């Protein structure tokens, strides 16, 4: 037992990301519960809901009804709004967090949170107020015996088996480059931007933009009554569920359409491994894709231009948009520039690629090309297993919380009651 | 990780084999005649149970199978434990074997080590540690951060944020920290001896200037453009190529010299050649030696067994056959142990020309040269000729030996005579003169010896070239 350093105390690990919330037992290799972070809700009156929201977390007494989990936002309900409590990777709306966690732990995992120590993850740019709030929720609402909050950058490095690494994490909304040294994040070296959002916006523009773009209707299947097979590139023949159109909210529509875009990105979009080249892009085989409306087509160069947004922004785009998120090579060089000269070599030879966004077709190869161009000795660790890539942060937390040496770091309930919020900053360095 | 067996034992489930489901086939009724231990299955199936066993069958003594605890049940308990590395009374629960004692120390506590960072008093600070660049508050802060992050400098530097302080580099922080440590060690009363104290000071040694230059080098190494790197690599490859070319040229030249100006023409061997050849032979020897070691050492127990076969009995028939076919058998030397290395393969007789002993070789050569005989080149090295040459060499050797003894005795006689002369003249002359004479004699002799040794060295060389020539044949 002592040989491998593990000692399982049936701790739980909760990793909250922009797209999904992952929860599971420490020591497992995959999270038991993966639920979307977006949730649907009904409000009787907006102002009334705002009053009560923060005060009481239990669903029964809430005037608004929340729809959480796999059957939450993805089911069409009349008048259901959809929202996401996270903004730029940080929790903005804490009122929704307890129900989400409760759903994952109690409804999906069927366990009692008050019996288990809980490790929660946070992004590197998390604010002290946020992590203290999280500790408060855990101790006051879930009555956990012990709590710890760990950094996703560090956890991703641990999941890759490294104490020192440069972690490139591409999520749904945020893309970050974090230098980790000896299990600590170098906060001054952190670089992050909302790059995936830009990629998403570009993809949406490619699909729905007016000519020369496609101008495709991104209606989700929930709103389509029936459709006829359509020829290639022909206008689709389908009928809309008129009964639902009136009751569909703007936020649900936006959520559903962005999901259609994501689906398209996942199955069709890619990036050229060796940098952009018109001829090479033209020589790549186009890929077919059919939308819920029945419109189907082959996508050639445009599908490859989407991934290009991760690595290169044309001058015109930069000039027209001053708030453009930095692309990945810029983030990497920013991180390395702010690190000590001695560390650069170590970091560039320990690059850990993680996050669901990195599963983008051709991403790892292109990243390797970009990196070796400026750092010939760069070595990239990108797990081939997509589960490991998507849940890297959770996996690292699972490893950490099942180590025998870790159990002295838990913030216990007793300590929380004695020291208050200050203990979080002291313990979770 | 708990194995399936562990889970079974936790849940007190019976072993899977014990509850065979209905789907599993019924076990055949056990065969009444058991195969006795220590007899192989194939043999048993051949001789059957009825065959009486002549040999006493004993079970072979094999290593005992390790007991992995699979057979017996292990009881597990879900137990609360306390971690003594914690200050509070948090009790976590984990599964342990019931056999572990309840009051056992948590096994991971021993990994809770903290680095010892120096502390200093106000008095010490004012006496030794004043620095115009650093205030006491900032120094305190630095030591606190160093303690918090276990003196991991990159992290200390990252988290270092002294309100109102000037921005500091890692090297500034290290410099201050280590200088304070050094001063503290130096000025505090020290219990141990001086060497351990200076050693401790040495561990806190930090040269900021050197560190800065080192980092500058790293930066310049990093800032090379790809062209520069490519050029550097090209140059490196070029140098390697030139070196290789040169080596090849030299080898070829040596070969050429050896072929053209070789021993055939009677020219002396080339010095570089010798060196090279020695080197080559050396490496060959080494290689062969190591190979022999590798191959022979495992098989040494086998080798001695077949050697007696080599000594065939000399029957009359064999002798007749040998005489008819002019076969002469040489007995291997008895003193040398019979190994692979001592084995004499088929060889040309010219390889086995007798060579005079190295110690007396020059004298023998000189003696033979006096007689006008060249012993080093045998035109027809037949058996008889070689035997004659051997006899000749032996005779010459004994002659030379005799001469040496004669010389020695003659020399002794001369010395004794001179001593006698000295004794006789001692009455008339003084002591120092005798010393003079003595010295002069010794000096003469020494010169003579050096002359002969020079000559002999030359002779030896000649002999060597001659013998080399023989090897060529």
TrEMBL record, chain A:
Pfam family, one: Actin
Gene3D superfamilies per record: 3.30.420.40
Family named by the database record: Belongs to the actin family.
Name of the molecule in the record: Actin-related protein 4
From TrEMBL, chain B:
GO biological process: chromatin remodeling; DNA repair; negative regulation of transcription by RNA polymerase II
Domain Myb-like: 130-183
Record-linked Pfam families: SANT_DAMP1_like (PF16282)
Keyword annotations from UniProtKB, A to Z: Chromatin regulator, Nucleus, Transcription, Transcription regulation
Record GO terms (molecular function): transcription corepressor activity
Subcellular location: Nucleus
Main subcellular location of this protein, as a coarse class: nucleus
Cellular component terms per the entry's GO annotation: NuA4 histone acetyltransferase complex; Swr1 complex
TM regions (residue ranges): none
Start and end residues of each stretch annotated as Disordered: 1-36, 424-473
Family the entry assigns: Belongs to the SWC4 family.
PANTHER family in the record: DNA METHYLTRANSFERASE 1-ASSOCIATED PROTEIN 1, DNA METHYLTRANSFERASE 1-ASSOCIATED PROTEIN 1 FAMILY MEMBER
Biological role stated in the UniProt entry: Component of the SWR1 complex which mediates the ATP-dependent exchange of histone H2A for the H2A variant HZT1 leading to transcriptional regulation of selected genes by chromatin remodeling. Component of the NuA4 histone acetyltransferase complex which is involved in transcriptional activation of selected genes principally by acetylation of nucleosomal histone H4 and H2A. The NuA4 complex is also involved in DNA repair.
Protein name: SWR1-complex protein 4
Species the sequence originates in: Sphagnurus paluster
């Amino acid at each position: 037992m002592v040989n491998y350093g593990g000692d399982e105390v049936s701790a739980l690990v909760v990793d909250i990301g922009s797209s999904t919330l992952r929860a599971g037992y420490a020591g497992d290799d995959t999270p038991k519960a993966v639920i979307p972070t977006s949730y649907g809700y009904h409000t009787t009156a907006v102002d009334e809901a705002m009053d009560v929201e923060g005060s009481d977390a239990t669903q029964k007494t809430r005037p608004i009804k929340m729809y959480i989990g796999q059957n939450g936002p993805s089911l069409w309900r009349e008048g259901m709004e959809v929202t996401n409590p996270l903004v730029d990777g940080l929790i903005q709306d804490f009122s929704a967090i307890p129900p989400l966690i409760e759903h994952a732990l109690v409804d999906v995992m069927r366990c009692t949170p008050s019996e288990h120590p809980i490790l929660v993850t946070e992004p590197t740019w998390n604010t002290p107020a946020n992590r203290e709030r999280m500790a408060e929720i855990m101790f006051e609402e879930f009555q956990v015996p012990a709590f710890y909050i760990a950094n996703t950058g560090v956890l991703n490095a641990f999941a890759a088996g490294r104490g020192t690494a440069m972690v490139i994490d591409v999520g749904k909304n945020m893309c970050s480059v974090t230098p980790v040294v000896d299990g600590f994040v170098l906060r001054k070296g952190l670089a992050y931007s909302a790059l995936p959002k830009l990629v998403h916006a570009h993809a949406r523009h490619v699909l729905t933009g007016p000519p020369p773009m496609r101008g495709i209707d991104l209606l989700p299947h929930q709103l389509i009554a029936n459709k006829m097979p359509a020829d290639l590139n022909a206008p689709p023949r389908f009928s809309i569920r008129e009964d639902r159109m009136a009751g569909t909210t703007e936020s649900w529509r936006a959520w559903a359409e962005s999901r259609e875009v994501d689906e398209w990105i996942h199955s069709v979009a890619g990036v050229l491994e060796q940098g952009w080249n018109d001829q090479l892009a033209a020589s790549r085989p186009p890929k077919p894709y059919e939308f819920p409306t029945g419109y189907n087509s082959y996508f050639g160069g445009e599908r490859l231009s989407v991934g290009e947004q991760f690595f290169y922004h044309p001058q015109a785009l930069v000039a027209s948009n001053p708030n453009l998120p930095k692309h990945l090579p810029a983030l990497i060089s920013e991180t390395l520039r702010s690190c000590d000269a001695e560390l650069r070599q170590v970091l560039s030879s320990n690059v850990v690629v993680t996050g669901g966004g990195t599963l983008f077709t051709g991403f790892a190869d292109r990243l390797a090309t970009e990196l070796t161009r400026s750092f010939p000795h760069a070595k990239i660790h990108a797990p081939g297993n997509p589960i490991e890539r998507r849940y890297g942060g959770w996996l690292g937390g699972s490893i950490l919380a099942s180590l025998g040496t870790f159990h002295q770091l838990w913030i216990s309930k007793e300590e929380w009651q004695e020291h208050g919020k200050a203990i979080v900053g002291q313990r979770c360095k | 990780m708990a194995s399936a067996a562990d889970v079974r034992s936790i849940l007190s489930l019976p072993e899977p084999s014990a509850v065979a489901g209905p789907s599993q086939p019924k076990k055949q009724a056990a065969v009444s005649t058991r195969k006795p231990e220590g007899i192989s299955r194939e043999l048993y199936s051949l001789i059957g149970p009825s065959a009486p066993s002549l040999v006493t069958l004993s079970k072979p003594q094999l290593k005992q199978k390790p007991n992995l605890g699979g057979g017996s049940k292990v009881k597990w308990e879900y137990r609360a434990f306390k971690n003594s590395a914690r200050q509070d009374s948090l009790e976590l629960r984990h599964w342990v074997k019931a056999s572990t004692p309840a009051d056992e120390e948590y096994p991971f506590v021993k990994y809770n080590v903290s680095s010892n960072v120096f502390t200093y008093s106000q008095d010490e600070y004012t006496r030794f540690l004043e620095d115009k660049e650093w205030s006491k508050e900032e120094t305190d802060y630095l030591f606190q951060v160093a303690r918090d992050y276990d003196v991991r400098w990159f992290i200390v530097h990252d988290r270092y944020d002294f309100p109102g302080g000037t921005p500091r580099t890692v090297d500034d922080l290290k410099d201050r920290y280590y200088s304070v440590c050094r001063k503290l060690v130096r000025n505090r009363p020290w219990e141990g001896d001086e060497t351990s104290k200076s050693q401790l000071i040495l561990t806190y040694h930090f040269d900021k200037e050197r560190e800065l230059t080192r980092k500058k080098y790293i930066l310049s190494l990093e800032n090379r453009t790809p062209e520069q790197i490519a050029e550097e690599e090209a140059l490196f490859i070029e140098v390697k190529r030139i070196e290789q070319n040169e080596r090849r040229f030299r080898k070829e030249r040596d070969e050429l010299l050896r072929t053209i100006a070789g021993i055939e023409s009677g020219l002396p061997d080339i010095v570089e050649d010798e060196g090279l050849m020695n080197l080559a032979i050396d490496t060959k020897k080494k290689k062969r030696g190591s190979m022999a070691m590798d191959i022979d050492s495992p098989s040494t127990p086998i080798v001695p067994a077949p050697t007696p076969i080599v000594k065939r009995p000399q029957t009359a028939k064999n002798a007749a056959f040998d005489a008819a076919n002019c076969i002469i058998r040489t007995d291997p030397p008895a003193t040398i142990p019979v190994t692979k290395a001592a084995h004499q393969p088929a060889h040309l007789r010219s390889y086995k020309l007798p060579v005079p002993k190295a110690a007396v070789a020059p004298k023998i050569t000189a003696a033979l040269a006096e007689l006008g005989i060249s012993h080093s080149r045998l035109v027809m090295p037949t058996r008889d000729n070689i035997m004659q040459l051997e006899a000749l060499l032996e005779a010459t050797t004994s002659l030379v030996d005799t001469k040496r003894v004669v010389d020695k005795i003659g020399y002794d006689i001369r010395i004794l005579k001179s001593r006698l002369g000295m004794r006789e003249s001692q009455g008339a002359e003084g002591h120092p003169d005798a010393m003079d004479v003595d010295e002069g004699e010794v000096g003469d002799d020494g010169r003579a010896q050096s002359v002969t040794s020079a000559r002999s060295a030359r002779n030896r060389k000649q002999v060597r070239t001659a013998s080399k020539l023989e090897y060529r044949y």
